[in-house]
Amino acid sequence: MPGTGHGPAGSQPRRVGRLGWWPRQSDIAEQKGPLVHAVFRISRKNRAMAAEYLRPLGLYPGQELLLLQLAEGERRSQQELVDALSIDHSTVTKMLQRLERAGVVARQQSADDRRVVLVHLTEEGCVHRRAVEEIWARMEAATSGGLSEEQHAQLLELLRRVEAHLDQLDQR
């Protein structure tokens, strides 16, 4: 409905706060799947927040998760990163190419198996990883800022249960 902020799913997006563009609230989505709709909205806001916090580092959302998989001084195979992130090999390859061009990671062939590409953080990458850890903590605080410690723990437990259930459905 015009002027109410509610309307069909395809209605025009609007600027909401500093975190980006959002479609108007969908009454149908709220009626048919309020939990799914809430998770969707929170996920979009969280991704926009990540983009804002990562931008000064020259990183994009998703790249921080890859950096968090690489411990300082550790070398991991590209396939291990694909498995850990549960994303397509070509996506990880593209992320690594961008991070390598930025001087954040380095790749080299394994001496034991030339088919295996090993990835490690550069000195600059170690600095970025520590910054990402701080960003992750800021995002956690921002996301749960309106909750008590008990509510935070309850919400986390419930979300883990939902995730475990969805993992079970995924294995069927």
Provide key terms for this protein.
Arc Repressor Mutant, subunit A; 7 helices; single chain; two-stranded antiparallel ribbon; 172 residues; 58% helix; three-stranded antiparallel beta sheet; mainly alpha
General description of the model:
- There is one protein chain.
- This protein is mainly alpha-helical and 172 residues long.
- It has a single domain (31-170), classed as Arc Repressor Mutant, subunit A (Orthogonal Bundle).
- Helix 2 crosses helix 6.
- It contains seven helices and five strands, in the order E-E-H-H-H-E-H-H-E-E-H-H.
- A hairpin with a 7-residue loop joins strand 4 and strand 5.
CATH class: Mainly Alpha
In DSSP terms (H or I, runs of 4 or more residues), the helix count works out at 7
Give the helices and strands as they follow along the chain. Answer: EEHHHEHHEEHH
Main sheet record: 3 strands, antiparallel
Structural class, by secondary structure, is mainly alpha
Secondary structure layout plus pairing:
Elements: E1 14-15, E2 21-22, H1 27-32, H2 34-54, H3 63-69, E3 76-77, H4 78-85, H5 89-101, E4 105-109, E5 117-121, H6 123-144, H7 149-170
